[in-house]
Amino acid sequence: MGFEQANQRVERTAQNVSDGLVRFRGSTRTALLLATRDIVKDKKVTALVICVFAFSFLNVIFFTSFNNGLENTFHDNLVNTFTSHVIIEPKDAARKYITGVESIERKVTLLPGVVAVVPHLDQGITLSFRDKTIGGHMMATVPSKEKRVTLIPSKTTLGEFLSDSDRDQVVLGKFLSGDEKRGESFGFEGLGAEVGDRIRIDFGNGVTREYRVKGILEAGGFNADFNAYLTIKEAESVFGFENRATEILVRLGNRNAAFDYKRQILQQGIQDQVKTWEDKAGFIKEITSGLSSVTAITGFVGVITVAVTMAIVIYINTTYKKRLIGVLKAIGASDGTVLRVFLYEALLFSILGILAGVGLSMLIGEYFTANPIPLPPGPVVPDIRPELLMTTSISILGSAVFAALYPSWKAARQSIIKSIWS
Amino acid sequence: MSEAIRTEDLKKIYLMGKVEVPALNGVSVSIDNGEFVALMGPSGSGKSTMLNQVGILDSPTSGRVLIDGVDTSRMDGERRAHLRLEKLGFIFQFFSLFTELTAIENVMLPMMLTGATPAACRGRAKEYLEMVGLGGRVDHKPAELSGGQQQRVAIARALMNRPKVLLADEPTANLDSKTSLEIIQLFRSLNEDTGVTVFMVTHEPDLGELADRVIMLRDGILESDGRAKEKPRGKKPS
Questions:
Q1: CA angle (A73, A76, A77) in 5-degree steps
Q2: Percentage of residues in chain B with pLDDT exceeding 90?
Q3: CA distance B153 to B61
Q4: B173 has which bridge partners?
Q5: From the list B100, B110, B118, which residue is nearest A331 (CB)?
Q6: Closest approach of chain B CAs to the CA of A407, in angstroms?
Q7: Would you say residue B110 has pLDDT above 80?
């Protein structure tokens, strides 16, 4: 008897659950029908709401992707004109030079995946041309290797870059050459020297030599445009030593594998400091994080705009439909069904708005890919990342549905009598 | 014959600020299955309040309402909604259709809420629209229908879940006299053909006389309860 009763209870519970699921399905279908028809009915309002959503979406996407693009430009400049992928530096500040450069170069070059290695010698110098004298930086390199490790040689805009055998030739960054015709000088007064002019360089060890300007480059990077480039052989003859460098740059096949190569290089028994380009990019984070907070505020305003719009639309809708809400409840719809009608409406508005926003973002992205924004660090192409689209979509969807919740809940809870006679 | 509706000492008091206004003052009625009852009375007599109580759209201050033998007094909102869905069909005096839906979609709504498949809902809705004489207007929107046609759609909608009771709140209030008569005759024939109980509020004595029974309310009190003078028979709606 007890077993039979328990069995009946289980059957009743199962039946109740099954009935509940069927009713839920029915309620969902009804709510979806009413929500979709309502959206289709008033095309002008729907178009306006979608526009607000799309532009709010674009507002969030554009500033963040611009910031991403700026960061990319900074990173590209860093890698292409300053650090390459991995950079080897003297062990500590007390040691000015890396010694045994050839041996290190050999070891690192042998690692699979390493494209090329170039040593640099970097010293403070004084440059003079006619009556002008300015302070600057010498960057001595091996030109044939430099071409494989950085893009600096390819940035020579006037004349040409050095060749390995050059001794009395110099290539000047645009700020040292100082021709204001070549663009923004950032208040830096250069020599005013052109290709073919002869300039004088005073080195820190007291040696003074004359060099012919072989080329002028415009790298748009961090230091490159403030450097005077010599061959490393010439610098060694000035300083009277060999097989030394202030840094060794390593180019990899895959920029993202830098950390792994840092580890591999250290495993070669190299005693000097090995850093990845990302280790050196900390200052970029500092620059872009300032912009990130502005972007976050802009994005927040966009999301709030969506939420307020949605709340207003649903509030107006529930007020306008008060009587029909009463009728719907009178014919047997539960509070949950009424709630869902308006939540689905918010959801559908959001989905349509987000789709329009994604389309608009893609169009804007295409435009700026073809026409990058010219900025001092280089041309910036807004970087619209899939995860950015995803998080923005979720934020917009979440805020819209959340904003719709209160007016929908209020509509669902209102008394049938008051609704019908409103 | 079993009872479709039973009210026991039904009282409803509204609060207007701090003043208590009694709308129903201990009304007890019993309506059997298959009856066609007109609820009449002057303005403010409590007709609509009574209908709202019977339709479990509102809760009484005291007393009980039983629908098809089920006591509704202790039901929560969810169970009341379910009872309305299964046992009651509503027709209002205003044209209570969803303007963005077609006639057939409006009629389908109550059955859709039960979880029935769209095909089943469409099939039955078409059947009922034909029954109320709108078989050729299934895909028309309410704005494309006359007042009388809209009310017929509302009647078809009220019938969709084959309810025990049809509740009509002055269903002809916004219609001309010819259409009003057609609508009442439609109620009559539905009552006779399907056996559905009809409980209709009206303030028009001519229409009330077409019912089996007339309940008169005055000042929230049952004034009289008896058979109507005349019952039209065998006259189907055109």
A1: 85
A2: 61
A3: 34
A4: none
A5: B110
A6: 19
A7: yes
Domain map (residue ranges) of chain A:
25-76+285-420, 86-276
Q: Is A219 an 8 Å CB contact of chain B?
A: no
* Residues of chain A numbered 104-123 and touching chain B (CB < 8 Å): none
CA angle B177, B181, B182 (to 5 degrees): 120
Give the separation between CA B30 and CA B34, rounded to whole angstroms. 12
Whether residue A34 lies within 8 A of chain B, CB to CB, comes out as yes
- Per-residue pLDDT, B233: 41
A328 touching B, CB under 8 A?
A: yes
A209 touching chain B per CB within 8 A: no
Q: Is A41 on the interface with B (CB under 8 A)?
A: yes
Distances (CA, A) of B161 to A203, B113, B116, B118: 99, 10, 10, 14
Polymer length in residues for chain A? 422
ipTM: 0.88
Question: Higher-confidence residue: B236 or A103?
Answer: A103
Considering only CB atoms, A332 lies closest to which of B81, B98, B118, namely: B81
The model's pTM is 0.76
Domain residue spans of chain B: 3-227
Q: Are B90 and B158 in contact (CB under 8 A)?
A: yes
The tens digit of pLDDT for each residue in A136-192 reads 899 999 999 999 999 999 999 999 999 999 999 999 998 888 755 554 555 667 888
Cβ atoms of A346 and A397 closer than 8 Å: no
* pLDDT of the residue at A184: 54
Q: Does domain B3-227 have CATH number 3.40.50.720?
A: no
A272-301 burial code (b ≥16 CB/10 A, e <16): bbbbbbbebbeebeeebeeebeebeebbee
Residue at A134: amino acid letter: I
Q: How far apart are CA A406 and CA A403, in angstroms?
A: 7
Chain B residue numbers touching A16 (CB-CB < 8 A): none
Q: What is the dihedral of CA A260, A266, A268, A273, to 10 degrees?
A: 130
- Which DSSP category does A372 fall into? P
CA distance B143 to B133: 18
